[in-house]
Amino acid sequence: MLTIHIRPHWEISVKGEAPLDTADLLGLLLSIQDTGSIAQAAKSVKLSYRYAWGLLRAAEELFGEQLLHTGRGRGTQLTPLAQKLVWADRRIAARLSPTLQSLASELEVELGRITAGRTRPLRLDASHGFAVAALMGCVDRDLLPIDSRYRTSTDAVMALARRDCDLAGFHVPTGRFQAPTVAWYLRWLDPEQHCLVRVAGREQGLITARGNPLGLRGLHDLARADVRFVNRQAGSGTRMLFEMMLAAEGIGFESIDGFNSAEFTHSAVAAYIASGMADAGMGMRAASAQFKLDFIPLLRETYYFALRRDALEGAAMGQLLELMRQPAYHKLVAALPGYDPTGTGEVLSIREAFSL
């Protein structure tokens, strides 16, 4: 099966002049950040030293500012402008990657139908998560074609109810917020028609800037005047959970600076904080670790795939479940910070899962 990768690409121009392609520049800046040397950086990204210098000079002329600081004994370092460019690229990738991955999957399926006359693939609509991404990385799509689309938990279970997908990925907290969350999803999930597959347990909490410089300890600190918050988009499972937690603590939404902001993945929230544009956000420990940020644990939750009971008999579904039960996949999940593979691949009734 064809494999398609779509990556973000951006250019910068001033007053209609020829645009600067950032692809080589950003790779070079990242390598300089890691190595502290222009010569080593150019070699690592496979650019000639002369071309690398020319690229840096062209960018500095465009911005009218330096991108590098050099000093004896401390190597070459990025200026604040260069650091902002690097973080802008990481934010763009974190925000757009799920959408681009979904589009790539759709294109793979459509082209596969034309070039090989393939049968209909398994359709997975899922809230974005690291365990799901790891699972998609394990799938041999020649043997098990999957059309995966990232969307909110609510949108995923709605699509399952309409029969627009075969699997719907969503997450439910354990403890006091489980019952209202389950009640929400039972608008579309029918215990008589649907069942669940456990994907993984995972940890949610507050992601803070590295070192937690503001000394944040919990939700009440988000109402402080000196704290800038970045939120998830309305309709996401994490946004719904966050709003329930605030209501339980008697914290008004309007008291939080940035409550109405909206990022579309846990990684995008973490990238936003790492770039210095916010001080805290709600998200997974794995996203915090991805950007080397601090994390305040608040609760655990379980990520599930919902599916129709009669779909369990399908050969493709059986292949996917077998893959999820393999020790190799469990090992990948266990390596994700804050994740727990206990019971991964287990099929449960909705009543069993939520003690209904």
Give your account of this protein's structure.
The radius of gyration is 23 Å and the shape is globular. The two termini are 42 Å apart. The chain is 42% helix and 20% strand. Strands 5, 6, 7, 8, 9, 10, 11, 12 and 13 form a nine-stranded mixed β-sheet that branches. It has a two-stranded antiparallel ribbon with strand order 1-2. Strands 3-4 form a two-stranded antiparallel sheet. It is built from 13 helices and 13 strands. The longest helix has 37 residues, at 80-116. By secondary structure, it is an alpha+beta fold. A hairpin with a 7-residue loop joins β1 and β2. The chain has helices at residues 22-35, 38-44, 49-63, 80-116, 130-138, 153-161, 178-185, 237-249, 266-274, 285-290, 315-324, 327-334, 350-354; strands at residues 11-12, 20-21, 68-71, 75-78, 122-126, 146-150, 167-173, 194-208, 229-230, 280-284, 294-308, 339-340, 347-349.
Output the keywords.
single chain; alpha+beta; two-stranded antiparallel sheet; globular; 13 strands; 9-stranded mixed beta sheet; 356 residues; 13 helices
H-E string: EEHHHEEHEHEHEHEEHHEHEHHEEH
The biggest sheet, with number of strands, parallel, antiparallel or mixed sense and barrel status, is:
9 strands, mixed
User: How much helix is in the residues?
Assistant: 40-55%
Q: If you average the pLDDT, what whole number results?
A: 89
Q: Radius of gyration from the CA trace?
A: 23 Å
Q: What's the total number of strands?
A: 13
Low-confidence stretches: none
**Beta fraction:** 15-25%
What is the count of helical runs? Answer: 13
**Quaternary organization:** single chain
* Overall body shape: globular
**What is the CA-CA span between the terminal residues?**
42 Å
Class based on secondary structure composition and strand pairing: alpha+beta
